[in-house]
Amino acid sequence: MAFFTYILKCSDGSFYTGHTDNLEQRLAQHQSGFFTGYTYKKRPVELVWSENFPTRYEALEAEKRIKGWTRAKKQALIDGDWGLLSELARNYGDRR
What is the CA radius of gyration of the chain? Predict the structure, then answer.
């Protein structure tokens, strides 16, 4: 079974990061307002990044790590800009 960490772009331009074992179902839940949390009033949402992991633990750890990142670092991940992502990671002490 695969587990996923994902980033959604909300209608207000903000990002939401989560993890799941069923990405299609989770996206539909966010779109429908099933969850009354962060994304509820920020619909529609758009899946902008996801990665699969072999265990729920690894997906959860990736979610926690990404949630602590700045918007710039998340955007670099979404864009696949590994050079910028690496540079932002090196500047971790200055700003996440």
Answer: 14
